[in-house]
Design a protein that fits this description.
heterodimer; A: mainly beta; seven-stranded mixed beta sheet; B: mainly beta; three-stranded antiparallel beta sheet; globular
């Protein structure tokens, strides 16, 4: 089945550091990938839609200068949390579905737990 | 705008009892509905989707367009079914307009 790999799985860093999270589709191409944030004991919240070769689409309330998204190829999207602060600590999950299918289910990465000290 | 609701945040049942996780949606077109499950410390994974009409791990879900519901059911709950369950809706191509419900935590008691 379709596999999405997310790296790193856990990051602990000091306030002010920028952190890059990678999301790769291992055995399929994905024109579109999605980035979610999950607060403890809450549902996933869509942050942005990453589009290959074009700008990402951000959800309302998500700072695009804070959460930089790059989708340089059909198998890789990156989320960079710039100048991270403790309130950015959360669980970040990416997802993708194969290009060419409509209404296909999402395949999720394992997520990245970000802890800012 | 599309929306998915799951009225129960927490549902506790005893092992062997029937379980029903409720999901209602609002969408103007013809959506595709999914159930995802997240076991403790594991990734979110697809449980089932309405168009496949299959039973996974004993779970079934029927899309009721009249009631705009997609409830998840299992006749005899097992302890290993304890997890977080999310109902989701996809209303566009390539996963756009993909909306999750708030989730229901199922706890199956011994």
């Amino acid at each position: 089945g379709a596999v999405v790999s997310q790296h790193p799985s856990r990051v602990i860093c000091k306030s002010g550091t920028s952190v890059k999270i990678e999301c790769r589709s291992l055995d399929f191409q994905a024109t579109t990938m999605f980035w979610y944030r999950q607060f403890p004991k809450q549902s996933l919240m869509l942050m942005a839609t990453s589009n290959e070769g074009s700008k990402a689409t951000y959800e309302q309330g998500v700072e695009k200068d804070k959460f930089l998204i790059n989708h340089a190829s059909l198998t890789l999207s990156t989320l960079t949390v710039t100048s991270a602060h403790p309130e950015d600590s959360s669980f970040y999950i990416c997802s993708a579905n194969p290009t060419g299918g409509s209404n296909q289910p999402q395949h999720f990465g394992d997520g990245t737990r970000l802890s800012i000290l | 705008a599309q929306r998915v609701t799951q009225p129960e945040k927490l549902l506790s049942v005893f092992k062997g009892a029937p379980v029903e996780l409720k999901c209602n949606y609002s969408y103007s077109g013809s959506p595709e509905l999914f159930w995802y499950v997240q076991y403790s410390r594991q990734r979110l994974q697809l449980l089932l989707r309405h168009i496949s009409r299959e039973s996974i791990k004993g779970f079934t879900a029927d899309l009721n367009k009249g009631e705009t519901s997609f409830h998840l059911k299992k006749p005899f709950a097992q302890e290993e079914d304890s997890a977080m369950y999310y109902c989701a809706l996809s209303g566009g191509n390539y996963g756009q307009n993909f909306v999750f419900g708030p989730g229901t935590r199922l706890s199956v008691l011994p």
